[in-house]
Amino acid sequence: MKNKKHLYITLLVIWSVLVCALLFAPSIAFAHEPKLFNFPCSDKVVHFGLFCVLALLIYKNFLLKGSYSHKIISKSVLIIITLFGLTTEVIQGLTAN
Q1: Burial code of 18-29, b = ≥16 C-beta within 10 A, e = fewer?
Q2: Which DSSP letter does residue 40 get?
Q3: Residues 6 or more apart from 68 whose CB is under 8 A from it?
Q4: φ and ψ at 62, to 5 degrees?
Q5: For 71-87, b where at least 16 C-beta lie within 10 A, e where not — what string?
Q6: Which contacts qualify for 25-28: CB closer than 8 Å, 24 or more apart?
Q7: Based on the number of CB atoms within 10 Å of its own CB, is 56 exposed (0-12), middle (13-18) or buried (19 or more)?
């Protein structure tokens, strides 16, 4: 069980760093994106996917602790993801060219 906890914490940290790297990368880095992601609102779909996986990893880490109800975990994940999203938006706004 301890190895499983470490695995999910490691996945959460790696995914969080990846999400930040993608969100803070300059838009020029994605200028030649594949046609697969070239449709209206494609950035919203990608953001949803990134944050969905992040939320699931946070949820799983709370579940592995075993001492919280699903209701408390769900509310906590919602608050954490909202704060993470707002923080990344503020940082993007401060660093935009």
Answers
A1: ebeeebeeeeee
A2: T
A3: 62, 76
A4: -65, -40
A5: eebeeebeeebeebbee
A6: 26/97
A7: middle
CA 45, 13, 77, 74 torsion-angle sign: positive
What does the pLDDT average to over 9-18? 94
pLDDT tens digit string along 30-73?
A: 666 666 666 777 778 888 999 999 999 999 998 888 888 889 99
Q: How many CB atoms lie within 10 A of CB 59?
A: 19
CB 63 within 8 A of CB 8: no
Q: What angle do CA 8, 11, 13 make, to 5 degrees?
A: 110
Q: How far apart are CA 64 and CA 5, in angstroms?
A: 6
